[in-house]
UniProtKB/TrEMBL annotation:
PANTHER family: PROTEIN UNC-93 HOMOLOG B1 (PTHR46744:SF1). Residues 1-21, 541-619 are annotated as: Disordered. Pfam families: UNC-93 (PF05978). Residues 594-619 have a biased composition (Basic and acidic residues). It is a multi-pass membrane protein. Residues 545-572 have a biased composition (Acidic residues). This is Unc-93 homolog B1, TLR signaling regulator. Belongs to the unc-93 family. Keywords: Membrane, Transmembrane, Transmembrane helix. The lineage of its organism: Eukaryota, Metazoa, Chordata, Craniata, Vertebrata. One of its GO terms (molecular function) is Toll-like receptor binding. GO terms for biological process: intracellular protein transport; toll-like receptor 3 signaling pathway; toll-like receptor 7 signaling pathway; toll-like receptor 9 signaling pathway; toll-like receptor signaling pathway.
Length: 619
């Protein structure tokens, strides 16, 4: 009984502490769980997560390059295919009289071609302003929308629909191509940054080391050219599958043609004006235009949804904040750089040779000798050759940058001499093989030339991401000038055209040799100073961090402080931007950690300043 009572007594008295210890144990377990949840995870590997993050970023850059390439290819497949079909139909006298009577389609076509070829002459005045105002991605999207507008106007062929849409295309051509060149080069720079994300100059967004991203520029430009040049192939689908079945015989079409090749004046003198054996049904043409319209919308969607931004938001703001007057002037100031001036002849020749391939050679040599039904074959061979041989620019990974341009020039010089000496007569199907070989070789030279020029331009300005839009705007503006000259010389003798091509190519090679010689001697080139962005404005968008309501009257020496701040900010910008840019432009784990450190340092500085103000006597 005593033992029982003792046990009961001990049980009664020990009951409370046991329950309390359980509660303490539960609280301790909850604390341990919270520490495990909030503390560093044993399974979490920060370096591995960061590596996976930048791998996704690199895949995103590759996706951007492929999307921009396919988008541009679709846009120009639709544009060139529709334009070719439209010009062939409107050339036929029976089609004009039966379909449109006295509408004057020939006059409309002349004005439409004038709008496409003349309007780009003034494009250097507005191209950089448009690109910086809209952004590179949105400029590509808007330009593809203008091409889609041109397709839509062909549903109702009238002067007030075709001519304004053609002029709009002329306005958009140079901004579209300048944006594409800028975009591909920026993707190469971004890819380098995502590969070398641990480097100090990348984390602090400093200027890239010289030659750091050259290999990526070479690869991306080659990929873009290989995909885009397929547009020449797909542009011939309407001709091959729709119009070829409605053409007259070659004997009828070429009945009055007396000579071909280098001996003719104009395009094809004596070419018959009734080239259609029977008119295509209106419903068939509407179906073709609807398919082309669908692909034009597809290109717009690709640019909108699949292409990422070319610059970080803070970089976009910096590019716009130098002032619109400066943006307007800087393209002209960049022409002081002897590298750009000496490359201008090659810019002009790249426009000459492309237009000669799709108009001069294809018509005066191809159609004149083989007939209109073989036009699609010549263009397809040229496009496939351009696409396949664009990959030869990858040789620049191992050889000097002049290899592509010199090799392309050598091929074209040889072909021009052959075309000057080649005797040809009309309606001669036996010449199909030699002309296809010439078309393929011309495509080889074009691929080396165009890819080489774009790549060389990217290599020369690889570290100048704030100048890329100006540089590519100048390049494609000179190309547009060359295309306008080709438009003007359509009635010249073929020998004169070939002589101009040869002279321009020789001058371009000499100027390029001079440029490389000066660079080898390390002759300094003159680059215009780009003004420092100014974000401190009176509006609500940009607010000072410490005191957004600061006014000039409250600080007597505010001018002096602003001057010092500007200098420090300029040095910081030349060094690659501040911590704020790094934090806002990147969302990786390391960048988030750096942003948190910056935030804690700023908070500590503010608290220290408040402590000093409280310690001051009479404060």
């Amino acid at each position: 009984m005593m033992e029982a009572s003792d046990t009961e007594e001990f049980g009664v008295h020990a009951g409370a502490p046991i329950g309390g210890s359980n509660e303490l144990l539960d609280v301790g377990q909850e604390d341990n769980q919270m520490e495990e949840f909030l503390g560093p995870q044993a399974e979490y590997n920060e370096e591995e997560e960061e590596r996976k993050y930048y791998r996704r970023k690199r895949l995103g850059v590759i996706k951007n390059v492929l999307a921009a390439s396919f988008g541009a290819m679709i846009v120009y497949s639709v544009y060139m295919g529709l334009l070719q079909m439209q010009l062939i139909l409107h050339y036929d006298m029976t089609y004009r009289e039966v379909k449109y009577s006295n509408l004057g389609l020939e006059d409309i076509d002349r004005k439409m071609l004038m709008g496409i070829n003349v309007t780009p002459i003034i494009s250097l005045l507005y191209t950089p302003v448009l690109i910086r105002f809209l952004g590179t991605k949105w400029m590509m999207f808007l330009a593809s929308g203008i091409y889609a507008l041109f397709v839509s106007t062909n549903y109702w062929e009238r002067y007030y629909t075709l001519v304004p849409s053609a002029a709009a295309i002329g306005v958009a051509i140079v901004p579209f191509w300048a944006s594409l060149g800028n975009y591909i080069t920026r993707m190469a720079q971004q890819y380098y940054e995502y590969v070398n994300y641990r480097e100090e100059h990348v984390q602090e967004q400093k200027k890239l080391p010289k030659g750091a991203c050259h290999r990526y520029i070479i690869v991306f430009q080659s990929v873009f050219s290989s995909i885009f040049n397929l547009s020449f192939v797909f542009a011939e689908f309407p001709m091959r599958f729709v119009l070829n079945g409605h053409l007259n015989t070659n004997k009828h079409i070429l009945h009055s043609v007396k000579t071909c090749g280098a001996n003719i004046t104009g395009l094809i003198p004596g070419f018959n004006t009734t080239i259609l054996e029977r008119l295509p049904r209106s419903m068939l043409l509407i179906e073709v235009e609807s398919i082309l319209m669908g692909f034009a919308f597809l290109a717009m969607i690709i640019f909108l949804l699949l292409c990422g931004a070319a610059y970080r938001p803070t970089e976009e703001i910096d590019l716009r904040s130098i002032g619109w007057g400066n943006i307007f002037q800087l393209p002209f100031k960049h022409l002081r750089d002897y590298r750009l001036r000496l490359l201008c002849p090659f810019f002009i020749y790249s426009g000459f040779e492309t237009m000669f391939a799709v108009t001069g050679f294809s018509l005066s040599y191809g159609v004149c000798v083989l007939g209109l039904d073989k036009l699609w074959l010549l263009i397809v061979v040229y496009g496939l050759s351009c696409s396949v041989f664009s990959s030869l620019s990858l040789s620049l990974l191992y050889f000097p940058r002049w290899v592509c341009l010199v090799a392309g020039a050598a091929v074209h010089v040889t072909l021009i001499v052959v075309l000057l000496a080649l005797p040809l007569r009309p309606n001669n199907p036996e010449m199909l093989g030699p002309l296809l070989v010439i078309s393929a070789l011309w495509g080889l030279g074009s691929a080396l030339n165009k890819t080489g020029v774009s790549t060389v331009l990217g290599l020369l300005y690889a570290e100048e991401k704030e100048r890329l839009d100006f540089v590519y705007a100048i390049y494609h503006w000179w190309q547009a000038i060359a295309i306008f000259i080709v438009y003007l010389w359509s009635n010249l003798p073929m020998r004169a055209k070939l002589s101009i091509l040869l002279a321009t190519l020789l001058v371009a090679c000499y100027c390029y040799w001079l440029m490389e010689r000066r660079l080898l001697k390390k002759v300094s080139f003159r680059l215009p100073r780009i003004p420092r962005p100014r974000h401190k404005v009176k509006g609500y968008r940009y607010l000072e961090e410490d005191n957004s309501d600061e006014s000039g009257s409250e600080n007597s020496d505010g001018e002096e402080e602003d001057g010092k701040g500007d200098g420090a900010e300029e040095l910081d910008r030349e060094g690659g931007g501040g911590d704020q840019h790094a934090a806002s432009g990147d969302s990786s784990p390391a960048a988030a950690r750096r942003a948190a450190e910056v935030h804690h340092r700023r908070r500590d500085n503010v608290q220290a300043k408040e402590g000093e103000s409280e310690e001051r006597p009479g404060g």
